[in-house]
């Protein structure tokens, strides 16, 4: 039983550090490069959406969501970033995402 509690605690902590669900985080900038785009959030994190990872349809959907959030001031909901990329369009530290949500 103790092992189960420790495992559950570690699992919950690891999930909570991977997701962005911070109140007040908004899209401040959209940056295009090739067939991909990245967003910079109000807490100065960069997240990249790569066409090769999500496909053209989902990329366009994410881009529409990002532009809507930037224009309306809506907050980002859930983002589960991967490990920072060593190089994306000459930039370091951009985190790839395949999930993007908007909060009212």
Please provide a written account of the structure.
This protein is α+β, with helices and mostly antiparallel strands. The chain has a single domain, classed as Beta Barrel (OB fold (Dihydrolipoamide Acetyltransferase, E2P)), CATH 2.40.50. 37% of the residues lie in helices and 22% in strands. The strands form two sheets. Strands 1-2-3-5 form a four-stranded mixed beta sheet. A two-stranded antiparallel sheet has the order 4-6. The protein is globular.
Helix-strand sequence: HEEEHHEEE
**CATH class division:** Mainly Beta
What share of residues is helical?
25-40%
Strand order of the largest sheet: 1-2-3-5
Topology, please?
Blueprint: H1 2-18, E1 27-33, E2 36-41, E3 46-49, H2 51-54, H3 56-72, E4 75-76, E5 95-96, E6 102-103
Parallel strand pairs: 3-5
Antiparallel strand pairs: 1-2, 2-3, 4-6
